[in-house]
UniProtKB/TrEMBL annotation:
Domain of life (superkingdom): Archaea
Protein name per UniProt: ABC transporter related protein
Chief place of localization: membrane
Keyword Membrane: yes
Species: Methanospirillum hungatei JF-1 (strain ATCC 27890 / DSM 864 / NBRC 100397 / JF-1)
Subcellular location: Membrane
Membrane topology, from the record: Multi-pass membrane protein
PROSITE patterns reported for this sequence: ABC_TM1F, ABC_TRANSPORTER_1, ABC_TRANSPORTER_2
GO cellular component assignments: membrane
Keywords recorded for this protein, A-Z: ATP-binding, Membrane, Nucleotide-binding, Transmembrane, Transmembrane helix, Transport
Coiled coil segments of this chain: none
Transmembrane segments: 21-50, 62-82, 135-160, 166-185, 244-267
UniProt-listed InterPro entries: AAA+_ATPase, ABC1_TM_dom, ABC1_TM_sf, ABC_transporter-like_ATP-bd, ABC_transporter-like_CS, P-loop_NTPase, Type_1_exporter
Gene Ontology terms, MF aspect: ABC-type oligopeptide transporter activity; ATP binding; ATP hydrolysis activity
Amino acid sequence: MTQATPLQQLIRLSGLVKSHLRLLAAGMICDATKQLITIGIGLLGVFLIYTAKEQSNASALLPIGGAILILALARGVCGYFGPYLNHIAAFQVLSDLRNQLYRKVDPLAPAIFISRRTGDLVSVAINNIEILELFFAHTLTQIVVAVLVPLIVLCGLLFIHPSLAGILLIFLIMTALIPTLAIRMNEKKGDHLRLFLANMGSFLIDSVQGIWEILAFGRGKDRLEAIIRMVLEYRKEQRSYVQVNACASASYAVLVSGGIVIVLVAATILTQNGEINPFYLPITVILSAGAFSATREVVEVSKQLSMTIAGAKRFFEIMDDIPVVQENGSPAVALSAVPEIEVSNVWFRYGESEPYVLKGVSFTIPSGCTAAIVGLTGAGKTTLTHLLMRFWDPEKGSIRIDGHDIRDLNLNYLRNTVSIVTQDIFLFNTSIRENIRVGKASATDQEVEQAARFARIHEFISGLPDGYETIVGERGIRLSGGERQRVAIARAILKNSPVLIMDEATSNLDTGTEMMIRDTIRELMKGKTVFMIAHRLSTVVHADTILVLNQGEIIEQGTHHELLQHDGLYASLIAAQEI
Ligand SMILES: Nc1ncnc2c1ncn2[C@@H]1O[C@H](COP(=O)(O)OP(=O)(O)OP(=O)(O)O)[C@@H](O)[C@H]1O
């Protein structure tokens, strides 16, 4: 879809309003009626002047004056409802688009973040969708009005004299070219500006998220200068964009006044030649002005249309993105309460041009057993957990739970079957209670507190002035690493799923706390099939089987004692940690 022309993008955008057509049609009728009433008031004004000239009796003017007053009121009503209905419809479309986008990001994540920055996605969700308001509220129905009203006017002029209609038609066609030219001339610029804005947003988000590092390394001044440079460059880019827009405005002004004057001159000549009644002279002016007035909003908005198209393009790019993991699973498959996991000849890399991270990995974790995976940093341990959760799929080989290929399971069901406690848990900027409740949305307050007790964090939370209602701050800044990790453990306790992944689950705990919650973790692991990753090898010695992963390959496998006897990489890692 990235290759689509502006017209194709606009047609695709128009397709998004299907379920709001009634509102838009009502808005369009109000807008068109308002334009026609304006012309009607002008015509009645002409009639009023002629009547005043011909009749000495003022009461003859009253019905015309009354009609003008009623039309003026009706114009006000249409002037209210037109924009109101168009905006209501537009905002409904925008909220649909945001919902569609959020729904789409879910299956695209986390792979999407390899190619896109968070700021980029935020920019699409906020700025790029917001700018589409211009199209839905100010362009779509106005295009219809800009065609319909001039057509009616042309019929009126045709009735007065065909040549007047011909002249106006030429000017209207030239006016219609302005939006097309403005879009064409600004197309690349619009893309560029949208991208620039997204990059600037990403840079700002990066700067805010990395504020600790920026302060710690004294890079605040550099960052500020970079931001100022970006803002200046953006201003420069905007200037050339605005130049095209100014040309469009100027051309429109020339065409409108030129069109009206030439129609008037032609009408005057026709009057002098006796081909039309002089009564029609002011009417031709009112009709021509009315026709141009109906096109004004489209021409005005068209100056921004290239930005709108660029926004649409970026939105559609995400909507057309194909998730790396496809949902094929049937919800009918039911796994046992304590499933077996079988990883069979798994090959995986993060991209076609990337090296393999896992190379023919095979192992089985029998039902209710614990497999620990150890290895040097970057060996591919976390990647294995990603495959187990189906954040990615293996390129070759398979992962089976209870004999079912996980690609055949319903994604939600699979992810509900697996709990994960990771080394870098994400906490939402809400209360501790809600953060624990992430493990089970329907958990009662008692269940949340019970889980916190098991995770040895209840006492700490109760000691806080706001207890469980304490807001943890952005990314849980209010809590220490160890406290965050215990919240993660509480979540997993609450989720209580049959498969448990512990990825450095106790790495942030001091030895004292780790000892304290060791029993809890054992309790948590009981009756579950567990996959455990640990650098601190003291935590894996009791595992039923230990897998040693080296550069994506399993090079040793056995119990702690077996591996010590084998005297390979595991034994050397143990020796290194005992030093
Ligand atoms: N999203 C990603 N995109 C591209 N490469 C990635 C991605 N995630 C990890 N990698 C690469 O895959 C390799 C394995 O990473 P992984 O995180 O699985 O290792 P690990 O054994 O868990 O390391 P550690 O013990 O340091 O956590 C690394 O070389 C890493 O650079």
